[in-house]
Amino acid sequence: MTSSPSTPVEDLPGLHAAVVDWFDANARDLPWRGPVRRPRPGTPAGTPAGGPDDLPDPWAVLVSELMLQQTPVSRVLPVFETWMTRWPTPASLAAEPSGEAVRAWGRLGYPRRAQRLHAAAVAITTDHGGRVPDDHAALLALPGVGEYTAAAVASFAFGQRHAVMDTNVRRVLARVVLGQAYPSTSITASERRLAAALLPAEGAHRWAAATMELGALVCTARAPRCDVCPVADRCRWLVLGRPDHDGPPRRGQTWAGTDRQCRGRLLAVLRDATEPVDQGRLDAVWDDAAQRERCLDALLDEGLAQVHPDGTFSL
After folding, report:
1. How much is the pLDDT for 272?
2. What pLDDT sits at residue 114?
3. Which residues of the chain have pLDDT under 50?
């Protein structure tokens, strides 16, 4: 079978099979991938749940996707397990103050994600009867859920057909199909069209998960393991001799001395405290007074921290 002219792949079924078969044999055992034992929609009450194609709990998928944004799996795993034990449903999280979500977020970074996840839980509980919606548009309307997250939850939790384009997927497609070392800095319209054209008619959610895992474990950014890649014989980047990146310079994010670091220090004090803390406790963790006050004001404006009438602070 030959692909359409808009898809520069000669054997799409072969590409799909190679990547998905590799995934079936090598996928990491991650808790948000585990199947939930629930009946299929529309089955009579009391019908046993189960089957080899069980999909995972949508709430677990949504939680994991927000936690995994710009955060490695190794850091997410312990926080995810604790979170899901404490808040196994959206309603259980929605019943608590948003500050508790920020506290439980720990040191994952970008704590506004915790705030948004709490807001999403409230919306799911209020507007969707406590169930994560399976409609892509409804997912996209949830607080903190963007295009990628909506597609990921619809695909992984509900088995729908969407192009799920995270950094790992984009890098795999750039190398294997386009022969480029890295994708562009931001997603382009042509990249979206390519990802959509590559989707298999059946099992697109497996393809999405498999390409993501391939990028995370084999087709990595700095040290790709081409010797164990299941599609090395189909990779255009390899055929071209692994050409260097010729786009804009790729710069890593700085950390030391940034507002992000300062905000993290302030939030750590509030998160670890059992009672409101005074200004002196916050002053002690960051020397630059102007930067410290600017970051504290931002935390207050964003609702990540609150100030009490006596001048103390808490989450």
Report:
1. 83
2. 92
3. 1-5, 36-52
How far is it, in rounded angstroms, from Cα 136 to Cα 152? 10
Query: Length of the chain in residues, anyone?
Result: 315
List the structure tokens of 193: 């069209």
Number of neighbours of residue 309 by Cβ within 10 angstroms = 5
Annotated catalytic, 65?
Answer: yes
Round to whole Å and give the CA distance between 292 and 86: 33
Do residues 150 and 136 lie in contact, with contact meaning Cβ atoms separated by under 8 Å?
yes
How many C-beta atoms surround the C-beta of residue 315 within 10 A? 22
The string of DSSP codes covering 115-167 is HHHHHHHHHHHHHSTTS----HHHHHTSTT--HHHHHHHHHHHH--------H
Contacts of 193 (CB under 8 A, 6+ apart): 6
Q: What is the CA radius of gyration of the chain?
A: 22
**35, β-bridge pairs:** 56
What is the predicted pLDDT for the residue at 213? 96
Taking each helix axis as running N to C, give the angle between helix 58-67 and helix 112-127, from 0 to 180 degrees, rounded to the nearest 10. Answer: 160
Angle 189-192-194 (CA atoms, 0-180°, nearest 5)?
110
Instruction: Find the catalytic residue in 65, 100, 191, 302.
Output: 65
Side-chain half-sphere CA neighbours of 287 within 13 A: 1
| 308 burial level (CB within 10 Å; 0-12, 13-18, 19+) | exposed
Say what the pLDDT of residue 7 is. 58
CA distance 134 to 309: 43
Output the pLDDT for position 247.
65
Give 304's Cβ-side CA count (13 Å radius): 28
pLDDT of residue 244: 82
- Separation of alpha carbons 114 and 120, rounded Å: 10
